[in-house]
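#lab-general

N.A. 3:47 PM
ok so I finally got the sequence cleaned up, no stray characters, all 132 residues accounted for. can someone with queue access submit it? mine expired

B.Y. 3:52 PM
send it over

N.A. 3:53 PM
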Amino acid sequence: MDYTVYISATGKIVRTGTAPLSLISRQPQSSESVLHQPSNVFTDYVFNAAVTPRPTNPATIDKMTVTANGNEVVTLSSIPSNSVISIRGDGVNLTQTVQGTTETVDFDTPGSYLIRIEAFPYLDYEVTVNAN
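B.Y. 4:20 PM
back already:
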């Protein structure tokens, strides 16, 4: 039988599997719960004791190409509260937690940069910005 183990307080799915019904109750650890349902660790979460698709992240970006001069910015909007934003690429490896709903980013060095916004239970938002 399929099962889903999730963090009781948040609904975040931590693992899934198949086991005999008699062993499913042994799967959760401290602060975890289990459901007798299949799920996808990446696209689902548990809400109201049911496996549910994670909502789309509402974050948006105003442009995906900028001049690499440190002056032109991209604006990220509709960012959920307590999001973790990471920027990776061409010597850049930044991660920060943001409280606001809007952030601006500029780039000094030409290259491609992956911006990722994580805010559970939302799906991760990813976009690549090209700085020329």
